[in-house]
Structure formats: structure tokens, C-alpha cells
Amino acid sequence: MQTPYYLIDKARLLPNLEKIAWLRAESGAKSLLALKCFATWSVFDFMSQYMDGSTSSSLYEVRLGHEKFPGETHAYSVAYADHEIAEVLECSDKIIFNSIGQLTKFSDASQDHIRGLRVNPGVSTSEFDLADPARPFSRLGEHDPDRIAAVADLISGLMFHNNCENDSFARFDEMLTLIEDRFGTVIHAMDWISLGGGIHFTGADYPLDLLAARLKNFAQKYGVQVYLEPGEAAITGAATLEVTVLDTMHNGKNLAIVDSSIEAHMLDLLIYREPAKVSPNTGDNEWMICGKSCLAGDIFGEFRFDAPLKAGDRLSFQDAAGYTMVKKNWFNGVKMPSIAIRELDGTTRLVRDFDYDDFAAALS
Questions:
Q1: Phi and psi for 351 in degrees, rounded to 5?
Q2: What pLDDT, in 10s, does the model give residues 269-301?
Q3: Contact at 8 Å (CB) between 67 and 90?
Q4: Disulfide check for 283: which of 33, 84, 127, 304 has CB 3.0–4.6 Å away?
């Protein structure tokens, strides 16, 4: 298959989904796929066997979830536009407003809909200010318990999304206790609570039994249905970005240029200044893997190999499912990676290719 392409491997996706299904059964919490992280709908039928639905961050995401992911469809947006709200309501089972202002603005339009409100508890696990929902002056959710209680009759649920790459159950437990202490009174008045995503409970050493017990006790204490919104937890390790070495150079270091681009195809690594992952990363030959765009910093990272790289060699960047395909772009007109799926029986099929017509159609 012609590189570059994202390869989604169902055999590597399945263990995450099985843990999600186990947690659903043991805790009673429902799990919704966060489309902002992963929206490759060709595997939605497979994922929906282990999950309860999808959750969104925009009109187009909620429409995609409604059309492609069986189960519940939750709508959320930092702000809905007047011309969007009717279609958002048509495509969703629940709508979550980011502010009291939006809730009251669209109160009449959504009066027959299940409604919720995002709450900002003022704590998070993010190590990056860029991604910290509890950063100073945050616009992500309401923070005043009294103001929220004043509109409690307009809603039946709350959404807390304050975990970010949190692989510590102790920290999750600590923050949920803080949420209970501050917002417990209004939580008692709700029918459902979403605890958002960012909880890495599908990691190898995560104490799933403790999480299940905590969620079950929380639901029973407040009489609510708990929702989780896994994104990366659902798809971590499930895909690779397959590339080919086009050229090699030496300028103080061994440089290999591949037919892909970090800015165009793995943008989050550039934003957060993190290297891609190559496995195994061993050997006596150290090479800097470079993208083919004109951006000077288009660098995937430095890795070790058993032999010197040469034009035509194939490389695989690991963990390429989350925040990649949803963020790919046409910078420099570099060809977007195709999307392929490896089935459980080992066969691989191409599900989407991108060409010049797609590039031209994205412009005007």
C-alpha cells in the first residue's frame, strides 16, 4: 500500500474496548467516544459493540455521531451559533451547554430536550497550560455553585471535564472528592453526571477495580447515571502512521526525510513539543527523522536503528490514532495519509484515500 497512511489495527484496539466494556458492567457507568480525539467512523460499528454512544464538540461532530455511531449522542460546544442550534438538537439525545448564558438563550428552543451544563471545578491534571480547562480566566464551564443551583430546574445533568492524560487513580479520586465537596448539593438534584474524558483507565497498570467501585459508589450516593467520555483511553496504541524514507542527508547528524509531515499529520506532537514513538528504539545507528514540509522544525524525533537508513525504507510511528486524523491538514499541499484498517483476521483494507481533488476542494 502506498505510504503515507494511518493503519488502524482492530487487534490492538480490542483490548481497550474490552476494558471499557468491563468497566461499564462493573460500575454501571456508560462510556461515550469523544469524537474530538478520534472520529474515523469506519470502525464505529466495531467500537459501538463495547460503548454506549458518542459525544461531540461541534455541530459537525454531533451530526457524525448521530449518523455513524449507534447509541446515545451527546452534544456539547463551547458556544452554539443561532443558525446551528436546531440541527444540534435534531441530532442529539442530550445537549450540554457551556454557560448559563447559552442555557438561558436557548431555553425555549431546547425546552423539550434533555439538557445539561458544563461545570468547571477549578482543578485539573493537565501539565500544559494550553490544554488546562482550569487555567486562570477559563471559559470552559461555570464555576459558581450558587449560580448553577439557581438554574438547576432548567437542567437534569452536569458535565465535569477536568482530567487530562490522568493515569493516577489516586489523583482522580482526590479531584472527584473536591467536586463532591463543592458541588454535592446541586449534584443531588441531577439525574446524570458526565465526568468527561482524559482518564487513562485502559493503561496496563491502572486499578480498574478501584475505579469501578468509586464510580458505582458515586452513582449510588447521588442517585445519578454516570457517563465517561473516553477519547485516547479508547484508542491508545491502536494505530500507526506508516511512512517511507525518501532521502537521507548528514549535517552533524544523520537525517532521514520521510513522505509525511509532523505539522500536517501528527500536529499535536508539534504543538506540545513531543517526539513521535518508534518501536523498537534500539540499535547503534541514531537518526533524526524529518518531515517533507518546508517548516524547519518539521521533525518527528531522533531514534535508534539496527542499520543505517536508506531511501525506500519503511518506518512506523506508533500510537497514531488520537488527535491525528481529526487534525490532519493540507499544509504545503503534502498528500494526506490514506486510512487503512487491519481486521481481526489480519487482512488489511484501504478505507479512504486523499488526492489532489480533495486538496483543491478544501480551498476556493
A1: -110, -15
A2: 999 999 999 999 999 999 999 999 999 999 999
A3: no
A4: 304
